[in-house]
Amino acid sequence: MRPLSDKESLLGRDVADVPSPFAQRAVRHVVGTIILAVLASAVVVAAANRCRGACDPVACAAALYLVVLYCLQVKFQEWPEFDARVSLLLFSALALFAGPAALELLLGRPCMFPSWWPWVAGLSCAAVSVCAWRVMVRGPCPTVAPGSMKGRVSIVTGCNTGIGYETAQALAEADGTVIFACRSEDKARAAIARMMEDSRAAGKELSKDQLLFLPLDLASLESVRGFVDAVDRSGLEVHLLILNAGVMLGSRSVTKDGLEGTLAANHFGHFLLALLLLPKLQEAE
Ligand SMILES: NC(=O)c1ccc[n+]([C@@H]2O[C@H](COP(=O)([O-])OP(=O)(O)OC[C@H]3O[C@@H](n4cnc5c(N)ncnc54)[C@H](OP(=O)(O)O)[C@@H]3O)[C@@H](O)[C@H]2O)c1
């Protein structure tokens, strides 16, 4: 086994055993192509059936919907990791949709199906739609195992709201310490108070020591350096760095470092932050 690079050990796991991105892409591509082929044949079978006057509108609509959905997902490269449950559901539902039509084509004569078949097909269609939406559209929802962040410190940038807030809450509720790296102290303190209330209401008590605030304006390289100094002075280890903050300015502005505003906050600020915290992250591992 090859030795781990710095970047790999920073991930905190032995990525040498994980298949290469190329292999993963290839597997995903093959699985995706098979699913697409099945979906496409379902549409062809359903359409052929229609020409012969034996149309199954549920099968047509469902198969078409899934093909379009799948194509959109591939186009936007959001096809998730292979999920056996979804694939199984997809295949069995498609077998239900396309099976009778395919049988008719093979036998060359209309087949009689039990009266419950449309119900099963309808329910499968609903189950596949829900499943497809959950996994393909909404995407996976990772959870943090209870207690798994105990003794671990995470920095989440821009976590006074949105995705960052939810991430910080999940980490804190798994017993971790979270540093709120936010540009507005008022907003960060309000978010900390809200998080404590939200978690209490959900039956999870967070302590004040778990939620810390340190000021960070990613649009200022000076502020980024100041933040890293403050982290150093706090004496805390840093196990996890989540570069969440982001902004999309409507008009062009230039920061005092001479950088375009959106690029400065989203890219350069985070880049410098990660670079300066790298030794600390490696140390903690
Ligand atoms: N939501 C989506 O559908 C979506 C899709 C793709 C990517 N994303 C990305 O995911 C991340 C989180 O999205 P979100 O929807 O949760 O965003 P959000 O609700 O707009 O929150 C963005 C956070 O970033 C902070 N921030 C902005 N500029 C900053 C700066 N210069 N220094 C420090 N903090 C700064 C904001 O602080 P203030 O509250 O002080 O402004 C806020 O806390 C963003 O990077 C976003 O681009 C989101």
Automatic annotation (TrEMBL):
Keywords: Membrane, Oxidoreductase, Transmembrane, Transmembrane helix. Belongs to the short-chain dehydrogenases/reductases (SDR) family. GO terms for molecular function: oxidoreductase activity. This is Protochlorophyllide reductase. It comes from Polarella glacialis (Dinoflagellate). Pfam families: adh_short. InterPro entries: NAD(P)-bd_dom_sf, SDR_fam. The keyword Oxidoreductase applies. The keyword Oxidoreductase applies. The chain crosses the membrane at residues 26-46, 58-76, 88-107, 116-136.
